[in-house]
Amino acid sequence: MTQPIEPPDLNVLDIPTLSSSFPSLLAAAVTAMPCTTAPDLFATTAAGHTHGQATVHAAQRLCLRCPLREPCAAYGCHHRERGVWGGTTEHDRRNALSNMP
Ligand code: SF4
Predict the structure, then answer these.
(1) Residue 97 has pLDDT above 90, yes or no
(2) For the segment 29-79, what is each residue's pLDDT rounded down to a tens digit?
(3) Any bridge partners for residue 6, and if so which?
């Protein structure tokens, strides 16, 4: 059975604080994160387009087991990054930003 993909709820996270902690947490990680071993799944294409839905879901499933999901999602949101960050898509992050005061 496929595990449901539930990204962190960006509407309840402290985006600036978590975002600022992400680079040091990533640098201190004792094991490689899936996005560092399979970066093509997480990035956008060379033309700046996002991958197909199946690739996005594959990246999101890998994020489910990552201990850095929340700060990573906050970083991707705070810095308006492209691709999958912390299990969130660009669409997820744009929605969260549009809901913020
Ligand atoms: S949560 Fe972030 S750091 Fe972890 S695998 Fe996903 S994209 Fe990489």
Answers:
(1) yes
(2) 888 888 888 887 777 654 555 668 888 888 899 999 899 999 999 999 999
(3) none
At which residue do the structure tokens 């669409």 appear?
A: 91
DSSP conformational letter for 51: P
Residues with Cβ within 6 A of ligand 1?
A: 33-35, 42, 62-63, 66, 68-69, 72, 84-87
Q: What are the extents of the domains in the chain?
A: 10-99
Specify whether the CB–CB gap between 85 and 74 falls below 8 A: no
Q: How far apart are the CA of 101 and the centre of ligand 1, in A?
A: 27
Nearest CA to ligand 1 atom 7: 85
